[in-house]
Amino acid sequence: MAAQKDSTEQSAPAKSKIDTVFRDFIEKGGRFEPQAGEHPFVSPGSAVFDLLSKFIRANRLTIHSAWAHRTLILRKLKGLEDIIPVTIVSPMLGPQGWPFASVLPFPGADVDPLYNSKHIKDLYLKANPEYSARFSVPVLWDKQNHTIVNNESSEIIRMFNSAFNDLLPPEKAALDFYPADLRTKIDEINEWVFSDINSGVYRAVFSKTQSAYEKVVYEIFAALDKVEVILTGKDYLVGDQLTEADIRLYVTAIRFDPVYVGLFKCNIRTIRDGYPAIHKWLQKLYWNNDVFKATTDFEHIKTNYYASDSLISNNNPTKIIPVGPVPHIRPL
């Protein structure tokens, strides 16, 4: 069940991979059994899963966050909306971390339906009053035990892929985005996409010297060149089907032109004009599969990166949010 450990979005985004603390799994016979409505979900700039029943697992997350975005996509692809409720927090990161709408209202953001928490950090301290690390998202919460199940997005998407299959209709249970026969190749691609692209853009923006910045940026574009070769003449990264590898790359690719090119200084090329195969792959996912469009909110994405009180937003002291690119994603 274990997945590659990735860094997750933090109250102050980290420039390199960090340890996540809550690493339990929803599984039969385990501490957290798969039950409908028992695990809400939370994340910054995204949704927190709402309370649907007496015992509920919920997801707290944000729709601006690439790490949290992965989980929203898997949740919707698998038809888990009625099993894993979600709550959206405000994309406006502040001194206390990610706020709920009760503290900082924003279109599409929600209040905490379980405890009326003010910030994501309140849930961490409820789960463990001695907790002193970063308040990361997404968060998979167990209402019955009043604690965090897991806050590692790469593991949460694996749980969403299979842990609730017995509660789903057959057509949804049959969907497998980490199939056994493709796992070796998926893991291989995930490893360098994460290090050189997903995490690479953050290493670029947090670079402290010119030489360090240039080294990272050239690594990012070398990895994108590699993706371009893989996707030439293909619709998906691995095999002939949508897999976890596509989802993990999509959440960075969709943010690349609107945010990473300008604010993160990853500007050797844009996706739309520099990578025709990646661009076509991105367009097809967004326009041909409603799950990708429905879970992508450019207002939340750009507001978080350009206007929050964060280390990244310090690169934009006026907090002016750019209009472009226009359109955010070109039609097919």
UniProtKB/TrEMBL annotation:
<dbReference type="Pfam" id="PF13410">
    <property type="entry name" value="GST_C_2"/>
</dbReference>
<feature type="site" description="Lowers pKa of active site Cys">
    <location>
        <position position="260"/>
    </location>
</feature>
<dbReference type="InterPro" id="IPR004045">
    <property type="entry name" value="Glutathione_S-Trfase_N"/>
</dbReference>
<dbReference type="InterPro" id="IPR036282">
    <property type="entry name" value="Glutathione-S-Trfase_C_sf"/>
</dbReference>
<feature type="binding site">
    <location>
        <begin position="152"/>
        <end position="153"/>
    </location>
    <ligand>
        <name>glutathione</name>
    </ligand>
</feature>
<feature type="site" description="Lowers pKa of active site Cys">
    <location>
        <position position="305"/>
    </location>
</feature>
<dbReference type="Pfam" id="PF13409">
    <property type="entry name" value="GST_N_2"/>
</dbReference>
<feature type="domain" description="GST C-terminal">
    <location>
        <begin position="179"/>
        <end position="305"/>
    </location>
</feature>
<dbReference type="InterPro" id="IPR016639">
    <property type="entry name" value="GST_Omega/GSH"/>
</dbReference>
<protein>
    <submittedName>
        <fullName>Glutathione S-transferase omega-like 2</fullName>
    </submittedName>
</protein>
<dbReference type="InterPro" id="IPR010987">
    <property type="entry name" value="Glutathione-S-Trfase_C-like"/>
</dbReference>
<feature type="binding site">
    <location>
        <position position="98"/>
    </location>
    <ligand>
        <name>glutathione</name>
    </ligand>
</feature>
<feature type="binding site">
    <location>
        <begin position="134"/>
        <end position="137"/>
    </location>
    <ligand>
        <name>glutathione</name>
    </ligand>
</feature>
<dbReference type="GO" id="GO:0004364">
    <property type="term" value="F:glutathione transferase activity"/>
</dbReference>
<dbReference type="GO" id="GO:0005737">
    <property type="term" value="C:cytoplasm"/>
</dbReference>
<dbReference type="InterPro" id="IPR036249">
    <property type="entry name" value="Thioredoxin-like_sf"/>
</dbReference>
<feature type="active site" description="Proton donor/acceptor">
    <location>
        <position position="202"/>
    </location>
</feature>
<dbReference type="InterPro" id="IPR047047">
    <property type="entry name" value="GST_Omega-like_C"/>
</dbReference>
